[in-house]
Amino acid sequence: MRDGHRHKDKRGHGEHGEHRGHGHHHKHGVQAQTFRRGRALAFLESLNVKRSTLQRQLDEPEFESIKQVISGELKATDTIIQEFIHVFQLYDLTHDSPITEEKSSGDNNDGDDEANPPIENS
């Protein structure tokens, strides 16, 4: 054994981790939860960037030949975004609504889309 590392009795383990059992686990759990929420929000933002790129491509004439494909990808992306918000409970606490990029009035999503029904907050 090296000097200073006596582990013959159970109290010796407390030397290295004094915080064990003193309520600090809650603080670390909150930090981890905040970190995971931050990662989820960053991923949601990347999905919103992809969505706006698809929306922009849908409106550009050079993509006319694949408009149906882009439209399908846009609908799929919208569905993924809505499911992601629901599963990870990413709601804006001040407005009690999902955290998403504001949809422009010309995005052809008027709520009649069967694949993307509006999310109801309960």
Which sheet architecture does the biggest sheet show? 2 strands, antiparallel
Structural class: mainly alpha
Question: From N to C, what is the helix and strand string?
Answer: HHEE
Strand residues, percent: under 5%
Estimate percent helicity.
Answer: 40-55%
Q: What distance lies between the first and last C-alpha atoms, to the nearest angstrom?
A: 60 Å
The stretches of 5 or more residues where confidence is low (pLDDT under 50) are 101-122
Report the average pLDDT across residues: 72
User: What Rg, in angstroms, do the CA atoms define?
Assistant: 24 Å
Strand arrangement in the largest pleated sheet = 1-2
- Helix count equals 2
Number of strands: 2
- Please tell me what the overall shape is: elongated
Region (Disordered): 1-33, 98-122
Biased composition (Basic residues): 1-11
Q: What can you see in these coordinates?
A:
By secondary structure, this protein is mainly α. The protein has a domain at 30-98. It is 47% helix and 3% strand. It contains two helices and two strands; from the N terminus they run ααββ. The chain has helices spanning 24-59, 67-87; strands spanning 91-92, 97-98. It has a two-stranded antiparallel ribbon. A hairpin with a 4-residue loop joins strand 1 (91-92) and strand 2. Helix 1 packs antiparallel against helix 2 (67-87). Residues 101-122 have low confidence and may be disordered.
